[in-house]
Amino acid sequence: MASRILVALASLVIMIGICSSVEAAQLGAGLHYLRTMDDLDGEISQDDFSIFGTVTIPVAMLRIEGNVEWVPDYLGSDEHLIQPAAYGLLPLGMLYGGVGIGIGYLTGDLAGWATNPFYALRAGVDLELGGLALDAFASYRFQNASFLDGASHVDLDALTLAAQIKFGG
User: In the 3-class helix/strand/coil scheme, how is the chain assigned residue by residue?
Assistant: First the structure.
């Protein structure tokens, strides 16, 4: 667990270092809706809402995006989920597509990192509005993980819809 935290912190420091030297970086914030695809037992909710912040850096033909997402009531558990993630996105005019990877950290009684990362496919539209940009996207996350050592893995695949406002760049 300590190694995962160290990797996450090192990644954040590297991303901040890159961003501080890149004038074309964009910062953003938005809202995210997640729908877990598998039917979950009992009082577990399949619907989650979150807020997230992003930094996007153009690198050659790609855009690299790092984000941190906060889900205040994950699966109706009253636990908070924090998910750092990174995406490689290929812009095609206003449209874009790409892939990503991230991992979740659950707070409270079940505190700990997920046993496996999630992988994501993402497609969206990026509309320039003067000095701002509106980014609306959908993604599908593939995740098979649990938050307790020794607990059986749960299929947490999710379809997501999100929108964010970005500035800078």
Answer: CHHHHHHHHHHHHHHHHHHHHCCCCEEEEEEEEEEECCCCCCCCCCEEEEEEEEEEEEECCEEEEEEEEEECCHHHCCCCEEEEEEEEEEEECCEEEEEEEECCEECHHHCEECCCCEEEEEEEEEEEECCEEEEEEEEEEECEECCCCCCCCEECCEEEEEEEEEEEC
